[in-house]
Structures are given as C-alpha cells and as structure tokens.
Amino acid sequence: MTVMRDDALSGAELRAFLQGLPGVDQVGAEERAARLGTRSIKASAKAEAIDLAISMVDLTTLEGADTAGKVRALCAKAVRPDPDDSSVPRVAAVCVYPDLVEVAVRALAGSGVGVASVATAFPSGRAPLEARLVDTRAAVAAGAGEIDMVIDRGAFLAGDYLKVFEEIVAVREACGGAHLKVILETGELVTYDNVRRASWLAMRAGADFIKTSTGKVSVAATLPVTLVMLEAVRDFRAVTGRQVGVKPAGGIRTTKDALRYLVLVNETVGPDWLSPRWFRLGASSLLNDLLMQRRKLATGVYSGPDYFTVD
Ligand SMILES: O=C[C@H](O)COP(=O)(O)O
After folding, report:
1. Membrane-spanning regions, if any (predicted)?
2. Is 135 assigned a catalytic role?
3. Strands annotated E in the chain
4. Which of 57, 58, 59, 60 to mutate to test the pocket of ligand 1 (most atoms within 8 A of CB)?
C-alpha cells in the first residue's frame, strides 16, 4: 500500500486513498470476533488479565451533574481501586469534562494516573472549529495530558474527508504535548468500511489513539468494530512504522467483556498492544466488576456489588 505525504494531501487524493482501502468482510469480522469472544482463559492467566484490564481503564465520568467532589472521589478510586488491597494496580487515567480537569490534576498529582479530558464540544462535536480548539487548549492548559476529541461524523458521512482530516490536524496542534485520542463514534458510521476509513483518516491526521465511541450513542463499543480498528492500527504500523493505540469505550461493564477485548488484542495485533500505553478501556462502571472478580479469584468468595465504592 502506498501512502502519499500527508502535508500535500488534496481532498481528491484522500478520498481516492480511503475509498481504495480493501472492504471489510462483514460476516468474517463478526464471526472472528464472536469466536474470539468465547475463548476461555485459565484461572492463573485470568488473574493476570484482570490486573492488566484494571491498569488499562480510563475511569470516566461524563455527566452534566458531575461535581468536583465526585471527581475527587473517582480520582481516589483510580489511584487505589481497592482500599483494602494495595496489590490492585492503579488505572491508566481518569477522564472528565474540561472544566473538571484542574480538580483531577490536583487530586492525581504524583500518582502516575493520567488525566484525560474530552474536548471539541463532546459528544456531538457540533460547534465552530475555533470553539472546539478553545475547548481543547483550555483542557491542555488546565493540565490534561490526554485529549479525547470527536470527529465531525456529518462531514465524514457526506464524504468531506479533507474537512475531517484538517480538523484533526488542527486539534492535534492545539494539543501540544498532550496525547490525542480520536473518537470515531462508530455507532454512527453505519458500515465497517467506514470504520476502517475513519481509522486510517484519523491515524494519518496524527491520532495517538483511535477510540470507538463517546458512550452517548446507543451502539457503542463492539468486538467486531474493535477488531476492524485493531487491524487498521496493525496495518498502519506496517506501512508507516508508527504505532497507534486503540480505545474501545462505552457499554463495557463486565469483566467478561473486558477479557474478551484483551483476547481480541492478543489474537489480532499481539502483545505489542497489550499495555496501557497502547490499549485502553473507556468505562464508567467496569472497575467494580473487575475488583469483585479479582477478589473472588483470590478468595473464592464473591463480595457483591455493595462491597466496593461506586465507580
Ligand atoms: O469514554 C468512555 C465512555 O463515555 C464511558 O461509557 P460508559 O458509561 O458506557 O462506560
């Protein structure tokens, strides 16, 4: 596959490139994801996988009713998920709206847990580009080390790929040193072919991560969509030498779900992606189930949902 220089791209070239990508075999992708999703894991490997999954969580609160107090409590949980067990790893990051970044940065100082912020008029992205850039810069200035932006799905679905590309480039620039996760909102992209195209478009525009969903649309992360995105990052690295991370987000609530994603990563792109540096699970309510299953494996006793604080 030939990839032309991105600083010299025209809309026609970008469209030709994206439309020239091989189509996704829908049945094949769904069958493969379903098959991998039923793989069982040995008990010894399961304990390790649960800890890995915990370390990959972007612990998220994205509610209109979020308060500084709620974010502080979430940060405490991110650093020490189980107050009674210091062997539980910390999560990867806490993900909040831009106006709560400062609170999270203070609460997480020196902890090693990152602060991620959604920006660019999350979740719809429907604001003038300048407003989305201001939103991004504000989150970075407040100390966010990771920005989760949404793409303009309307422009993408209308075939205006260059607009989407240039907006990602602009947000990338506004991020400065912060990592950029580009949310494709795959539940609105209609086809797997579009998911593959949007993945390549985002990576070529400079995404550090590609992320499935905002969690605000009814169809959020799925295994087949994540499979298509994993294949895209694998192929992108083979062509360009640059590795991009993947973050399924939205609707991931159980340990079973989380482990299915880890099996998918292992079988599709291999261990190079099996770390929080390259794979995240965006979730608001997964952590407690991981903690309950972890304790059950260690003690044989199921703690029940009331045992742990609310995520
Ligand atoms: O980015 C993460 C999602 O917004 C979380 O979605 P969730 O509440 O379905 O876990």
Report:
1. none
2. no
3. 57-60, 93-96, 114-119, 146-150, 179-183, 209-211, 245-247, 281-283
4. 60
Domains for the chain: give ranges and CATH numbers: 38-299 (3.20.20.70)
Regarding the beta carbon of 283 and ligand 1, being less than 6 Å apart is answered yes
In the chain, the N- to C-terminal Cα span, in Å, equals 44
Exposure b/e, 236-262, CB count within 10 A at least 16 = b? bbeeeeeebbbbbbbbbbebebbbbbb
Q: Is the pLDDT of residue 298 over 70?
A: yes
Radius of gyration of the chain (CA): 19
With bands split at pLDDT 50, 70 and 90, how would you rate the model's confidence at 310?
A: low
| Per-residue pLDDT tens over the stretch 50-84 | 999 999 999 999 999 999 999 999 999 999 999 99
Which among 135, 148, 257, 289 is annotated as catalytic?
A: 148
Distance CA 217, CA 198 (A): 17
Written as six digits, the tokens of 62 are 């994205």
Looking at ligand 1, which residue's alpha carbon is closest to its atom 8?
Answer: 284
pLDDT one-digit tens code per residue, 267-287: 999 999 999 999 999 999 999
* Cis check: omega of the bond before 276, within 30 degrees of 0: no
- Reported pTM: 0.95
